[in-house]
Design brief:
Elements lengths: L1 E3 L2 H7 L8 E5 L7 H17 L2 E8 L2 H5 L11 H9 L5 E6 L2 H4 L3 H12 L2 E7 L12 H11 L2 E5 L8 H4 L8 H9 L3 H8 L3 E8 L4 H4 L5 E7 L6 E8 L1 H6 L7 E9 L10 E6 L11 E11 L7 H19 L1
Parallel strand pairs: 1-4, 2-3, 2-5, 3-4, 5-6
Antiparallel strand pairs: 7-8, 7-12, 8-11, 9-10, 9-12, 10-11
Helix pairs in contact: 1-6, 6-7, 9-10
Amino acid sequence: MQVWQDLAQAAEAFGAGGLGSSVVTIGNFDGVHRGHRAVLERVVGLARADARAAVAVTFDPHPAQVHRPDEAPDLLVGLEDRLELLAGTGLDGVLLLTYTLDLASLTPEEFVTGYLVDGLRARTVVVGHDVRFGRGNAGTLATMVELGGQHGFEVVAVDDVGREGSHLAAAGGGARWSSSGVRALLAEGDVRGAADVLGRPHRVRGVVVHGDARGRELGFPTANLGGITGMVPADGVYAGRLLRPALAATDPDHPDTVLPAAVSVGTNPTFDGVDRRVEAYVLDRADLDLYDEEVVLELVERLRPTLRFDGVDELVEQMHADVARAREILG
């Protein structure tokens, strides 16, 4: 999948002898959940049928971080993971636009003609019924259809997707698969419910940094994450997996590329901790040197909330129970 950082790169890719024309969709695609993938699969299917390029237009930073920085939502995934997940849908390219107030000031027609028509040579635009674009979000589905008639592209409207009885419905978020619904589930620590909507385990990414070494002293050496991207769920202990992308890239058959883990999120209240941390104990392994390595944690199931114990012995007993339960869940 090609990633174009600006309009000039995209226009060059679609120039003479290049990609030709495209089927395009627009969105933030935070988390690239199952609802997003339904739209993206439609884009890819239409593009393959008409021998066109399948393209998504997305934005970084998230528009809310520019317009309402104090109210911007936690992002489900960082940019690296978003692009990786988008690539997994079969897209041919992503136009990654830096979201600024200047970009936001474009009228709906200026945005569509400049980016979709002239830049990406769109012949089909796939959007949801609630699409909004252009200055003040003035553009709607009806606007897109009107512009399509004027500039020679078809508009395909995709219905909301989800299902009754989903975890989102149980959480009061309705059955529609949405990024905001996943955030609500993660805020409650319901990573299994989040996975139902995402179509995969929720992940966070970070670099392993030095901590207090308290876990090693207790017999459970942990990898402490710094520089975390991805929404950190509610405090608690989780069964999960530690992924090592760099090792997988150089030696994909290495047995240590994916490791079962028990993951702690919280402040370590038994030791009067203040800082909120994410740390992972790789089950039954004390021989790993992960310092300064970028890792990904996939969170499979919450085992329990964070608790304050009366002493170290009680804590260690519970940690043994957590590890046993994680081992059972992860298989």
